[in-house]
Amino acid sequence: MGRQRRHRGVLILLLLAGWLLTACGEDEDSTMKNTADRPSMETVIDDYTQMRTEMVAAVDAIAGAGAWGNSSSIKELSRSGCRNGEDPDGERANLPNYTRKGPLTGDDRDAIMEAVWKVGRAHGFDEVGTIVDRPDDWEIYGEDPNGGRYVVGSSANTVISIGTGCHRWDTQPAPAPAPSGIPDHAKKDKG
């Protein structure tokens, strides 16, 4: 009887292990398939740029026109490979952060947050939420089904940050240039 229980236990463990291995393979295959079926990176960047323009217009319609521009910290589109388990032929990208000088923390704060969420929903960012919610500091987000995410927040200044999920390019851009060597201040022998 003890031997029969042991065999049954081993059989259950083997079936469980087989099921887990099969499930992992299906997830990876479906991730690859889903990435190939997603819009191209060029299409996504165009849509997210349009969404950012609409967010700025929605904020300005409530708070008055402001001076918006690329953040001094992230001025250009940045690119990276996709995460482990995602399509090795895909990439993720972050649009330049967009900044408006000064806070938007007065009486219009809640209306601004709702307006940003409304614009995001129109672009498929249906999962929304709040990260920080203080009278003088707020931050909200939205996520789309393909892994895209925006974060809009206001404290000392107001910032819109938008990143894509994993997408393939129609035409792969050239890689960023490699560093040109060791900076002079980092060289041991300066002579």
Automatic annotation (TrEMBL):
Segment Disordered: which positions? 71-106, 170-191
Q: Does the keyword Metal-binding apply?
A: no
Reply yes or no: does the keyword Transmembrane apply: no
Q: Which residues form the signal peptide?
A: 1-25
What superkingdom does the record give? Bacteria
What membrane topology was assigned to this protein in its record? Lipid-anchor
Q: PROSITE patterns, from UniProt? A: PROKAR_LIPOPROTEIN (PS51257)
- Which Gene3D superfamilies does the record match to this protein? 3.30.2030.20
For this UniProt record, the keywords arranged alphabetically read as follows: Cell membrane, Lipoprotein, Membrane, Palmitate, Signal
Location, primary (coarse class): membrane
| Localisation | Cell membrane
Q: Tell me any Pfam family this protein matches.
A: LppA
Quote the InterPro entries the UniProt record gives: LppA/LppB/LprP (IPR032018)
Instruction: Give a GO cellular-component term.
Output: plasma membrane
Name the UniProt record assigns to this protein: Uncharacterized protein
Give the organism, scientific name: Aeromicrobium yanjiei
